[in-house]
Amino acid sequence: MPCRRRSGTGRRPHVKRPSEKIQEMTTTAQQNHLVALFKAATVIPVLTIERIQDAVPLAQALVAGGIRTLEVTLRTSIAIEAARAIMAEVPEAVVGIGTILNPADFTRVEKLGVAFGISPGLTPDLLKAATDSSLPFAPGIATASELMLALSYGFDVAKFFPAEQAGGIKGLRSLGGPFPNVRFCPTGGVGEANAATWLAEPNVVAVGGSWLCPTAEIRAGNWAGITAICQRTLKALKGA
């Protein structure tokens, strides 16, 4: 008796396993937490710490100026040690790690127990590591294609980087049309003079930058000067 051919491809529709549903819920919760954290911060200083002895006094200066949420970048060999010192000695600070480039970096950061992670860009391997983790994470994007990749892994909070070089305010607005539900933290070219303009955009939850802690001031140990910059910035943003 001849066998009947099945119509269509013969493939069963994909039914999400319970573990997949749980992972989606977990990622959504992490993204919501990140939005709340970024909104509360408004401005996130990007810290490149060259000397371990600068870590704690720098964090104390920023906190004294009203800036509590800090991004310690993995651009130096002592970054992890610096973040650990800040977490231990400046409990008022909310410490995150930036410049996460690969899954190995992500694993190191996750073990540290920081509040969030940020990358300057994205790869499928990095996004997979982030979805398998409970660490709130914002991947870096500069184009619509990169943002679509981030969204395919469940990430709808992104670092827009490098913000000015990637089209500035006009570039951000062009992404807002096809992706109205994505929230951004622009970094790169954002400073005291234009932070308020970026924050006025409806899809921006915070801005990041290094203007709050200039390298020259860190190297000179001018902690009072850094506190003053923070206070002046927050006062200007409140006025705006």
Automatic annotation (TrEMBL):
<protein>
    <recommendedName>
        <fullName>2-dehydro-3-deoxy-phosphogluconate aldolase</fullName>
        <ecNumber>4.1.2.14</ecNumber>
    </recommendedName>
</protein>
<keyword id="KW-0456">Lyase</keyword>
<dbReference type="InterPro" id="IPR013785">
    <property type="entry name" value="Aldolase_TIM"/>
</dbReference>
<comment type="subunit">
    <text>Homotrimer.</text>
</comment>
<comment type="pathway">
    <text>Carbohydrate acid metabolism; 2-dehydro-3-deoxy-D-gluconate degradation; D-glyceraldehyde 3-phosphate and pyruvate from 2-dehydro-3-deoxy-D-gluconate: step 2/2.</text>
</comment>
<dbReference type="InterPro" id="IPR000887">
    <property type="entry name" value="Aldlse_KDPG_KHG"/>
</dbReference>
<dbReference type="Pfam" id="PF01081">
    <property type="entry name" value="Aldolase"/>
</dbReference>
<keyword id="KW-0119">Carbohydrate metabolism</keyword>
<dbReference type="InterPro" id="IPR031337">
    <property type="entry name" value="KDPG/KHG_AS_1"/>
</dbReference>
<feature type="region of interest" description="Disordered">
    <location>
        <begin position="1"/>
        <end position="20"/>
    </location>
</feature>
<comment type="similarity">
    <text>Belongs to the KHG/KDPG aldolase family.</text>
</comment>
<dbReference type="GO" id="GO:0008675">
    <property type="term" value="F:2-dehydro-3-deoxy-phosphogluconate aldolase activity"/>
</dbReference>
<feature type="compositionally biased region" description="Basic residues">
    <location>
        <begin position="1"/>
        <end position="16"/>
    </location>
</feature>
